[in-house]
Every structure is written in structure tokens, then in C-alpha cells.
Write a structure and sequence with these properties.
The chain has 316 residues and is α/β, with parallel strands linked by helices. Helices cover 47% and strands 14% of the residues. The protein has helices at 2-33, 70-73, 76-80, 107-120, 133-144, 177-184, 188-194, 196-204, 213-216, 225-246, 269-277, 294-297, 299-315; strands at 39-43, 46-53, 58-62, 85-89, 127-131, 151-155, 256-261, 285-288. An eight-stranded mixed β-sheet has the order 1-2-4-3-5-6-7-8, sandwiched between helices.
């Protein structure tokens, strides 16, 4: 019996070691092929990586769960940088931003980091663009720092606790930090490679993911254990703050725009988009045909929406 037990343990250790080495190989390959494109700054112990283009009035862009700043760099940044100073940040733990080991992933802490970015880069009350989970961070920033924000342009935003979690993010449902790291360094990357087509169909559907998304849109940067751990941590931190935030939306006194794809397979446009608009009488929900990844699949439409919100800010 002891011999059998020892054999099983050795086999398991060999499998774990193999998965670890494979994950390490993929991580190194991705980082060699896609080094940081932007700059870094320190905010509250977090090393924040950001992209910057253009000059003029400021726009701050915040990506969603498991996303990166390059989601906006795909095309939207370039469109708006013609006459604006545009900053796209990697949220703490995502992309090349490194979350402080003792820092929380709650929305209020992420909002504090965004406020720190605004102060450090002297952005002077930017319009904040938030996509998906980035929409929740944008809302948290406006609620905590109303004097630092001029308006919000929210694209497929998370605004309320979802009634159900998308199957695309089911693997992130890991409550224990040690287990997130173990899965991140063993199973997460091989499984994401295996299930890539299914996940992309949910995340982008009914639209197709562009063939150049992995490189141009930063998709390959998701193939690293740090990205998996950060996304799982972000998801499990939502209940700490988001339910309370939902009760405070009516206090927002700034222009807000909301854009959603009718066929969004990640978040429910009525639950999330209309749910926010109901609390903000002067805000309209703009619905278009499309899925969740509008900054990638419909960059021109997304840019025009942001410009409409900018016009509201100027006229406010």
C-alpha cells in the first residue's frame, strides 16, 4: 500500500512540475514577444503600467476583467488621440501592472489607484472611459473622488452584482488565494489554450474576435498566471463594495453615457445598463447590435459614443 501511495504521489508531482514548466515557458514566450509598450509609475505601492497618446483634454481608460490596456490601444485610443490626451491603464495586477502584495482588489481600492494616477499624471478632471469591470471601477472613482472626474463614458459596464456569472469566467471562481496561484501556475494556461475558441465565442459573440486581437489587442497577455490570479481576485472582491455602490448612484452629479451591445453574452444590458440609467434620470442607455467587446469589434462606434459624452461634459 505504501509503495502504491508513493508511486501515485510521484506521478502527481511529475504532472504538476510538467504543468508548471509549460506555464513558465508560455509566460516567458508571451513576455518576450509582447514587452511593455508604455510607462510605469508607483501609486500606493502598486506599479502601474499605462499607455499614453495625444495631447489636449484628458481621457482616462479602464479595461475590464482579465483585460489589458491594449484593448483600447487596438484602435479607440488612436481615434481619440487626434485631439485628446488619452491614457489607458493596466488595472492593478493586470497586464504589466503589479498589485502590491498586501493591497486589496476591492473597487474602492482600485478607485484610489485611479485617483492616484490622475494626480500623478496631472490629468485635470478627465473623462473616464470604463469597459466591463472597468465601468465599475470608473463609477467607484467618480463616487469617491467627484472633484477629480468630469464625466463617465461606460461601455458594456458592470454596474450591479450580476444575477449569474458568465461561463467564460467560471474557471475564475476560486475563493482561496493559495489555490488561485496553484491553478494559475498549473492548469489555467493549458486549459485556456484548449478552450480558447469556446471562451472567445462567449466573450466576443455574436461578433468574431479579430485575427490580430492576440497581438494588437493584447490578447496574448492573458496567457500568463499573473493575469489569471488577478482576474480571480478581482471577481471575488466585487461583493465587498459593489452592492453598497449600487445604492449611491443617484448621488452622481456629472454627465454619464452608457453603451451596450444588445447581444452581449457576458453581462445583461437591461440588468446592468438600464439598471444604472434608472438611477440617473439624465442618462440614456444606447443599445446597438453587438456583443461585449465593443472597443475591439466596433472601435469607430465606441469612439463616436465617447465623443458624444465628451460633448455633454463640455456643455454641462
Amino acid at each position: 500500500m505504501s509503495y502504491l501511495f508513493s508511486t501515485v504521489v510521484i506521478i502527481l508531482l511529475v504532472i504538476v512540475a510538467g504543468l508548471f514548466l509549460f506555464t513558465l515557458f508560455i509566460k516567458k514566450r508571451v513576455e518576450l514577444g509582447m514587452p511593455p509598450e508604455g510607462r510605469f509609475l508607483q501609486v500606493q505601492g502598486t506599479r502601474v503600467h499605462y499607455l499614453e497618446q495625444g495631447t489636449g483634454p484628458c481621457i482616462l481608460m479602464i479595461h475590464g476583467l482579465s483585460g489589458v490596456a491594449q484593448n483600447f490601444g487596438y484602435q479607440v485610443m488612436g481615434e481619440l488621440a487626434r485631439d485628446h490626451r488619452v491614457i489607458a491603464v493596466d488595472r492593478p495586477g493586470s497586464g504589466y501592472s503589479v498589485r502590491h502584495p498586501r493591497s486589496s482588489a476591492t473597487l474602492d481600492v482600485q478607485a484610489d489607484v485611479m485617483a492616484g494616477v490622475i494626480a500623478a499624471l496631472k490629468l485635470d478632471k478627465p473623462l473616464i472611459v470604463g469597459h466591463s469591470l472597468g465601468g465599475a471601477v470608473a463609477l467607484a472613482t467618480a463616487l469617491r473622488y467627484p472633484d477629480k472626474v468630469s464625466g463617465l463614458a461606460l461601455v458594456a459596464p458592470l454596474t450591479h452584482m450580476p444575477s449569474e456569472t458568465s461561463k467564460a469566467f467560471a474557471a475564475l471562481n476560486i475563493p482561496y488565494p493559495w489555490l488561485r496561484k496553484l491553478v494559475g501556475w498549473t492548469l489555467a494556461i493549458p486549459l485556456s489554450i484548449r478552450n480558447r475558441e469556446k471562451v472567445m465565442d462567449i466573450v466576443f459573440g455574436p461578433e468574431a474576435a479579430p485575427e490580430d486581437f492576440p497581438l494588437r489587442g493584447g490578447g496574448f497577455l492573458g496567457m500568463r498566471p499573473s493575469q489569471f490570479v488577478a482576474a480571480s481576485t478581482d471577481m471575488h472582491a466585487l461583493p465587498d463594495v459593489l452592492p453598497t455602490m449600487q445604492q449611491s448612484y443617484g448621488s452622481l452629479k456629472l454627465p454619464v453615457g452608457v453603451l451596450y451591445g444588445r447581444q452581449d453574452r457576458i453581462l445583461n444590458p437591461q440588468e446592468q445598463g438600464q439598471g444604472l440609467v434608472d438611477a440617473l434620470p439624465d442618462t440614456e442607455l444606447e443599445l446597438i447590435d453587438g456583443g461585449h467587446m465593443l472597443p475591439i469589434t466596433q472601435p469607430q462606434v465606441t469612439s463616436e459614443f465617447i465623443r458624444r459624452v465628451l460633448l455633454k461634459v463640455q456643455n454641462a
